[in-house]
Amino acid sequence: MGRSGRVTLSDVAKASGVSRATVSFVLNDDPRQTISVATRERVLEAAQDLGYVPHGIARALREGSSRVVVLNVDWGMEGNFSRSYVRGLDEELAEHEHILLVRHGHANPEATQHVLDTIAPRAVLRLGEVYMRGHEPVEEDWESGFAANAALQIRHLADHGHTRIALALPDHDFPLTDTRSGFAQEAARRMGLPPLEQFVVPRPRQAGAMAVEAFLAEHPDVTALAAFDDDIALRSITALRDLGRRVPEDVAVIGFDETEYGSLSTPALTTVHIDAEVLGRIAARVVLDIDTEGLAPVPGRIVVRESV
Questions:
Q1: What is the pTM of this model?
Q2: Helix (H), strand (E) at residue 272
Q3: Distance CA 149, CA 184 (A)
Q4: How would DSSP label each residue in 141-197?
Q5: Which residues pair with 273 in a beta bridge?
Q6: What is the pLDDT of residues 240-275, one digit of tens each?
Q7: Contact 12, 50 (CB under 8 A)
């Protein structure tokens, strides 16, 4: 053991009866070196028995960056989508001996630069950044991307006979509010539906009920609400019940980005489920410059319950 009590390359070399350089070649899987299978197995076994862990700082200096990938998740982006994305990203990075660091709500340039200066990460990602930069969807996005998931809500309501649909939005800005609204409006246009009305469902409960009441008084022909997410959908259901409106008989409600709470409400919430694990794995391979062949986004799906 080294003086710090930490297992070193020299310790592994001594235990396996080879040079320190050979140990380094084996543990770093250096393709330029020809090392026998027996020697490789002996070194790996010694490293495992001793509990050798590579020194991150030394390796970062050698490789030019650490083996840390940073993911910034803006406030309001947390949900089933982000959790599944993080799971896929984390697992894929771990398979290639990299570590994921998730930072919530700190995507401003100054904070990001501090991370770069401190740990020299392999890459810094921001969840949904391509859409925050105003990315215009191509047809592929309408097949299995974010646009397609947004369109699922509107199509499900249209399939149930609703032609006058409104978007129920949060009472403060989220990074992707405008993008989601734009995709929903375009989906309605493609389906031959009138433009979607939009209104905000605020907190607290009484304010939400007043907002829903005022909106429906002004738009009595609206028969369905497509909510920004499950939280807004549940606020809407609560407001409608407080107003004596029946869901779904008087007004249908559909959520987005399925949460457990939707299954516990009365009526249970119909919503859109998105599995982004593959997207996380694709992102990991891209930043590590690894082929993404065989990985394709999983289309979203409707979780059919009672609110539509």
A1: 0.77
A2: strand 271-273
A3: 9
A4: HHHHSHHHHHHHHHHHHHHTT--SEEEEE-SS--TTHHHHHHHHHHHHHHTTPPPPE
A5: 301
A6: 999 999 999 999 999 999 988 999 999 999 999 999
A7: yes
